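PROTEIN DATA CARD
Card holder: PilZ domain-containing protein
Chain length: 97
Origin: Pseudaminobacter salicylatoxidans
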Amino acid sequence: MTEPEGAENRRLHRQRVFKGASILTGVANSEIKCVIRNMHKDGAELKISIDSRVPQEFLLYVPVDGIAYETVVRWRKEDRVGVQFTGTRPKPGWHYG
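Structure generated from the sequence above:
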């Protein structure tokens, strides 16, 4: 299996994890369930449903961490999305988790 373009240029090693998360789009408080496959302090790789429409920027809420990360998509490949964290926010009040 080939790595996404630019993967060899990563500055930080990503730790393998298996965390449930939600992509919060803000459009009518919608969310897309996903799984974080690996992660480091600046970004993560997400596994999503192949037919999910993930926006270029979104809030990634990780319930086990209690953190909502502001994210920007850096690459996409089939059912995987690489994101960069640009900040954090408190859990959105409307989210049930």
